[in-house]
RNA sequence: CGGGACGUGGCGCAGUUUGGUAGCGCGCAGCGUUCGGGACGCUGAGGUCGUGGGUUCAAAUCCCGCCGUCCCGACCA
């Protein structure tokens, strides 16, 4: 492509209040433009990158047996009502009406539609299947932000596995897991797989792929010794064992004015240290009151509460609600004697005794609390949020926390969609089984932004070769000089005939402008062609990543450039 | 949804406190000089000041409503 024929409007200035560096660079470089909050146009340069990302994703999913199709994004709302996700997704689901007042929604993912298609299958012989599409998704995000990182309209590769049994699901899940690792490697990313919560998708197991970046919104916990990696929403850690001594009797004691665990611990260090206290939290999970009990020095991880209650929404109870439920204000709450209400106790409290907790009467507490003896516990579950520096529950290593961007997520779904949409097949014995589904997503444009977040310098983007809008940029230093331009054109034709994706900057601009633009748009290899080089028979090659320079002999420049590219591509795919 | 800020040529902004009919930088067009790291001179084009209403002789500026955008939080596959 010739720069003078291309649409590459680079800018000196970027949106000043934008937070994410990838957003600034992609706007300045002429890759994207914002239309409205969370809605972006892909300009020619951006579209080239996007298509290269899509191509890599498509090839890898094809390679594990995926069959590409394309489904509607406009869905009758009734389908989402049937799956129950209409309510589950709440405000995040775009809704609209057609001319006949029919309720429609725009798809966020398409388990429902794929499930409906799967209902046409009738025999185990039809399985397994991997179906996928690369298509637009809509989410009415409460707060789009950070450019392409969180938008309302985007492209997702969503694939779905259909299997007769859980071992089939496991196999499809592993295939995707491996394919995703290859995809992110080929995209030039260092994204890692971490254990994750399934959230509103439901299902049993899920793994996220996270690109480390401060622009990310997920906190990841990793062990410095082993390969334990988990989203904070899911992460666990090992705790030092505590000795509670001999079990004592339950006893009420007055605690006037003591409304925090800290105050209680300071006033009664012998009986109510934070580790020996119970933190009592009252939540509403889908309008159902839940008591969540944690050790006094621990914090609740709300996603864990959601997972434990299978609720789609949780919120702390208001003070008046708490008073109505338990008869006391926060600060004097406890689980002793609570009946007829879900009581979830964190695993760190299991088997503990001689603890202190509120008595559900203002200014009174219990001591000598033995959870198993004195409370009606619905379940012991993991509710605690891991803290930085705690010990790994696998090998005792030290846990570190860092932020990252979720670029992919794979789920073992189970049978909920197939049951709802009638996707059953018969096994060899003739009995009918719901198809077991898995679902697997990659956000294409978010991936692009994550690449930029991870790969840029002070002068601009450093695209990995595999997704760069062009592989080689020829910067013509004096394109008004006919001899120089002719030499550059010969190189351009030579590279193009060798199949190299080449952009030639043939603008009549000063060199500084061209160099600055070259670095901004981040093409991996730049060949500088100027009168000086034509004179001496050498072109200068600059590798964008690191800005290393070397010389190319003029007459063989195209060939040697091509072999350098092949070498680089081999490193990526090998 | 709560808090904060902003909306003025294509882009980035000043002007608003103190009302008098719009300005700067970049970019763009023409001419000339220059040009291997964001050149310079001259000339020029380009703006319903987000929008609706109000106050006023007069509104980018003051008042009210609405819309939009960004940031923090809540939220979020």
Account of the 3D structure:
It is a single chain. This protein has 574 residues and is of the alpha+beta class. It folds into 3 domains: 286 residues, BirA Bifunctional Protein, domain 2 (2-Layer Sandwich), CATH 3.30.930.10; 131 residues, YbaK protein (Alpha-Beta Complex); 104 residues, Rossmann fold (3-Layer(aba) Sandwich). Helices cover 28% and strands 29% of the residues. The strands form 8 sheets. Strands 3, 7, 8, 9, 10, 11, 12, 21 and 24 form a 9-stranded mixed beta sheet that branches. 44% of the residues are buried. It binds one RNA strand of 77 nucleotides through strand 21, helix 14 and helix 15.
What spatial form do the alpha-carbon principal axes imply? elongated
Indicate the CATH topology of the largest domain. Answer: BirA Bifunctional Protein, domain 2
Q: Name the assembly state.
A: single chain
Count of helix runs:
16
Q: Can you tell me the residue ranges where pLDDT is under 50 for at least 5 consecutive residues?
A: none
Radius of gyration: 29 Å
Instruction: Give me the CATH architecture of the largest domain, please.
Output: 2-Layer Sandwich
Number of strands: 31
Overall pLDDT metric: 93
**By CATH's scheme, which homologous superfamily of the largest domain applies?**
Bira Bifunctional Protein, Domain 2
Share in β-strands: 25-35%
Instruction: For the record, give the distance between the C-alpha atoms at the N and C termini, rounded to a whole number.
Output: 29 Å
| Major beta sheet summary | 9 strands, mixed
CATH class placement of the largest domain = Alpha Beta
Q: How many distinct domains? A: 3
The portion of residues assigned to helices is 25-40%
**Class by alpha and beta content:** alpha+beta
């Amino acid at each position: 492509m010739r720069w003078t024929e291309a649409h590459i409007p680079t800018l000196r200035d970027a949106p000043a209040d934008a937070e994410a560096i990838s957003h600034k660079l992609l706007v300045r470089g002429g890759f994207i433009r914002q239309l409205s909050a969370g809605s972006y146009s892909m300009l020619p340069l951006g579209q080239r990158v996007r298509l290269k990302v899509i191509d890599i994703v498509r090839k890898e999913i094809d390679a594990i047996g995926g069959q590409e199709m394309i489904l509607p994004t406009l869905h009758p709302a009734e389908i989402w009502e049937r799956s129950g996700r209409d309510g589950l997704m709440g405000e995040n689901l775009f809704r609209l009406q057609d001319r006949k007042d029919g309720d429609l929604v725009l798809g966020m993912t398409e388990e429902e539609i794929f499930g409906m298609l799967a209902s046409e299958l009738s025999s185990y012989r039809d399985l397994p299947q991997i179906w996928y599409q690369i298509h637009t998704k809509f989410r009415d995000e409460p707060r789009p932000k950070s450019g392409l990182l969180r938008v309302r309209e985007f492209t997702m590769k969503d694939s779905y596995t259909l299997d007769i049994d859980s071992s089939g699901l496991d196999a499809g899940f592993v295939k995707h897991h491996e394919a995703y690792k290859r995809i992110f490697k080929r995209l030039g990313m260092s994204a890692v797989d971490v254990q994750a919560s399934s959230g509103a998708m439901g299902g049993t197991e899920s793994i996220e792929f996270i690109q480390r970046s401060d622009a990310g919104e997920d906190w990841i916990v990793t062990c410095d010794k082993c390969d334990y990696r988990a989203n904070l929403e899911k992460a666990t850690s090992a705790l030092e064992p505590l000795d509670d001594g001999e079990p004592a009797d339950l006893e009420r004691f007055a605690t006037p004015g003591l409304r925090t665990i800290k105050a209680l611990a300071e006033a009664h260090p012998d009986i109510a240290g934070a580790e020996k206290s119970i933190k009592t939290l009252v939540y509403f999970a889908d309008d159902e009151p839940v008591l969540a009990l944690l050790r006094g020095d621990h914090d609740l991880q709300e996603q864990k509460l959601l997972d434990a209650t299978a609720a789609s929404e949780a919120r702390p109870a208001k003070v008046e609600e708490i008073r109505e439920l338990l008869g006391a204000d926060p600060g004097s709450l406890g689980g002793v004697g609570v009946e007829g209400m879900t009581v979830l106790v964190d695993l760190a409290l299991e088997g503990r005794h001689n603890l202190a907790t509120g008595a559900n009467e203002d200014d009174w507490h219990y001591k000598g609390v033995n959870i198993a003896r004195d409370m009606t516990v619905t379940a012991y579950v993991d509710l605690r949020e891991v803290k930085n520096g705690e010990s790994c529950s696998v090998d005792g290593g030290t846990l570190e926390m860092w932020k990252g961007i979720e670029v992919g997520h794979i789920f073992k779904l189970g049978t909920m969609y197939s049951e709802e949409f009638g996707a059953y097949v018969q096994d060899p014995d003739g009995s009918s089984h719901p198809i077991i589904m898995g679902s697997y997503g990659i956000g294409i444009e978010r991936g692009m932004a994550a690449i930029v977040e991870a790969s840029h310098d002070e002068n601009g983007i450093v695209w990995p070769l595999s997704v760069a809008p062009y592989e080689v940029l020829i910067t013509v230093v004096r394109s008004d000089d006919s001899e120089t331009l002719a030499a550059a054109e010969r190189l351009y034709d030579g590279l193009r005939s060798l199949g190299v994706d080449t952009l030639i900057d043939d603008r009549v601009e000063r060199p500084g402008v061209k160099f600055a633009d070259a670095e901004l748009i981040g093409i991996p290899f730049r060949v500088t062609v100027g009168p000086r080089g034509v004179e001496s028979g050498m072109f200068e090659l600059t590798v964008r990543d690191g800005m290393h320079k070397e010389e190319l002999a003029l007459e063989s420049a195209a060939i040697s450039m091509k072999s350098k590219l092949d070498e680089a591509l081999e490193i990526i795919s090998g």
